[in-house]
Fold Kelch-like protein 10.
Amino acid sequence: MEHKISDTAFNVFDEVRLEGEHTDVIITVQGKHFKVHKIILCGCSPYFRMLFSTQWTNTEEQPYDIPGLSSDTMSLIIQYAYASPVLITEENVSELLVAADQFMISDLIDACCQFLEANLCPLNCIGACMLTERFHSCSKLHQKARLYVLQHFEEVLRVSEEFLELPLGHLEELIAQDELNVKKEEVVFEAILRWIGHAPENRRKHIALLLSKVRMGLMSPEYFMNDVRNNALVLENEACSDIVINAMKVIFAPYIEEPASSELINQLTRPRLPSEILLAIGGWSLSNPTNEIEAYDARADCWVNVTQEDELPRAYHGHTSLSHYFIILDLF
C-alpha cells in the first residue's frame, strides 16, 4: 500500500516552524534569520543534505549563513520546502531560478522555466535567453528563447532595453545567424548602430567586427553608399576599409573588372532564412503540368524559385508535412 505525506502534515510542519518548535538549524540571509528543520530542507534539496551532513548529530540550533541571494528569495525556498504555495512572478523568477539551481531543487527549476516560457515576449526574451544559458537543466528553454529572439528580431529592437545590454560576443553571434528574421539587411546595420550608440566610447571600436557579419550584398546600392560607406563610425575605423571594398565588389559586380570570389559572394548575399514560408508546388503552366516550386517569404515580400532540376512535372496532387519535412502526394 503506497503511503504519502499528506498536505495536512506539511501544514503542521510549517505551523511548527513558524512557532519555532523543534527547529534545529538557523539559516541566515542578509541578516535575517530563518529557524527551520534540517530534515525538511534535506527532503527538498540535496544541497542542504550535504551542508548539514557533517554536524547532523548536534542537537543545538546551528547557524548557517547563505550568501548571494536575498532574504525574500530564501523565504520562497523555505515555503517550497514546506510544501506551501510559491508565487512566481516576473520580478522574482530570475533570482528564484538561480537559487533553485544552487540548491538543486529540480521541480522548482522546472516551474521557473515553465513560467519564463509561458511569458516569453519581445520585452524579456533576451533576458530569458541570457539567464538560462548558464543552466544545463534549462537548455531547452534557452534554445526556445534564442529562437524567439531570432524570429522576432525587429520587434525586439523596437521595444527591448535588454538588447542594448547584450555583450559583444552575443550580439556578434546573433547577427551572424541565417535564422535571423529581418525584412531587410539594413535593419541589421541599424541595430549595430543602436547598440554602439548606447555606450559609444566603449563600443565604437567594435564596428568592424560587427560590420563583417552584415550581408551587405543584400542591401540596395543607394543605402550602402549613403548610409554604410559614409557612416562616421565606418569612416574612422581603418579595419572597415577592406570590408567596404569587398562589399562594393559584390554590389557593383557588373561594373567592376575584378570579379568577387564565389566565397565572398555567398558570404555577403546569402539570404536569411524566414521563420515561415508559403510554397507553391507544381500545377499548370502554359496548358502543361509544371515542376516549378516557388517559396514566398512574407517578411521580405518576395517569391524565390526553389525548383530542383530532377523534379517531375505534377498536377492534381496533395501534400502533407511530417517532423518539418514536406511530403508531396501524387494522387493520380
Q: What stands out?
A: The chain has a mean pLDDT of 87. The chain has three domains: 7-86, 166-269, 278-330. The longest strand covers residues 317-322. Residues 7-86 form a domain with the Potassium Channel Kv1.1; Chain A fold (CATH 3.30.710.10).
